[in-house]
Specification:
The chain is mainly beta and about 325 residues long. It is built from one helix and 15 strands.
Length: about 325
């Protein structure tokens, strides 16, 4: 589901690894049944006149250095079964008084907390079928890379620190039909320490979302047509208010997507969705204060992209994107 077309087959012999590259590979994969890795992202964010247009407000100007560190491992105790674990933390250095969470109005290093942001078991070829089952905390992203639309970040409350969803996902690949069936059940808590403990204090200062959320995603993808992928999906999401600004809702989404590669350098994607249901949202203030009233949802949206693939050494691409809601 994540990529519309598989990469072309490799040609020729792979380049020989240098001694340094060979040492790194052996370090990251010391035995056939264990692999590990990590990354470090440092991001400086600055903005002004977004929180307030008054320079008398000490929070009108914001500058924060976000330091995200992650460490992960995959253990494969038996064939086709893998245990995936990832730890993540994002301390932040506020060079201006902070606007967010328990650190509001303060400057300096905010250590926040560390958490397990992936913990799942993946079973491939389950029951001797072309079926893969992944159960537990996982990154569940549907769509082209950097063109994710309806399913991606399951923890928006902490920014781009984590993306995970607590879910069970089953993927069945019917190769004779050139069709892939994907079903997921999700139960996401608003508070980061609801399922697993966090390291350090103030987990309530940065909730994952404003409400507890659960739902089902059914997705089917067919590639019978040359260089074309036809996809359809159904998403149900139920919200149960947890925080003061959370909502209660039953939301249903139906949609489809077509992607194609009519030319080696040209790729297109056309996606549309219709959404309906009901929602009780205490944050709605205009045109009137709805309070505890329930309102009906009736909406349509489209997401299209036209890409030019240069096919050069850096894999440069140019995109023209149009969205409508």
């Amino acid at each position: 589901i994540s990529a519309p077309f598989p990469p072309p087959p490799a040609t020729g012999q792979p380049a020989a690894l240098s001694p340094t590259e060979q040492w790194i590979r052996q370090l990251k994969n010391p035995t056939p049944w264990i692999a590990w890795g990590g990354d470090l992202r440092i991001r400086d964010e600055y903005f002004d006149n977004i929180l307030s247009l008054s320079e008398a407000d000490p929070l009108h100007e914001q500058n924060v250095i976000r330091i995200r560190a992650r460490l992960w491992t995959t253990v494969t105790p038996v064939t086709n079964v893998a245990l995936n674990v990832r730890l993540s933390a994002e301390p932040r250095e506020w060079t201006k008084p902070a606007f967010a969470g328990a650190y509001r109005g303060q400057s300096g290093m905010e250590w926040r907390y560390g958490m397990i942001d992936n913990l799942n078991v993946k079973w491939a070829n389950a029951f001797d079928l072309p079926l893969t089952i992944t159960a537990g905390r996982q990154d569940l992203i549907i769509g082209d890379f950097w063109n994710w639309w309806l399913v991606a970040d399951g923890s928006p409350g902490d920014g781009s620190w984590t993306y995970f969803l607590d879910a069970v996902r089953a993927t069945y690949e019917a190769k004779d039909l050139k069709t892939k069936f994907d079903v997921s059940y999700i139960y996401q808590n608003a508070r980061p320490d609801a399922w697993l403990p966090t390291l350090n204090a103030h987990p309530d200062a940065y909730p994952l979302a404003e409400q507890n959320e659960q739902g089902v995603i059914a997705y089917v993808s067919n590639r019978s047509l040359p260089s074309t992928s036809l996809e359809g999906f159904f998403i149900y999401k139920r919200d149960n208010q947890e925080l003061a600004n959370g909502d209660n809702a039953n939301i249903y989404t139906l949609g489809g997507r077509v992607t194609g590669l009519p030319h080696p350098h040209v790729q297109y994607s056309i996606e549309g969705a219709y959404q309906f249901g009901e929602k009780q949202d205490p944050t709605v203030r205009t045109p009137v204060n709805l309070g505890n009233l329930t309102r009906d949802l009736d909406a349509f949206a489209a997401n299209t992209r036209l890409s030019y693939l240069f096919k050069d050494a850096l894999d440069d691409q140019a995109h023209l994107v149009f969205c409508h809601e």
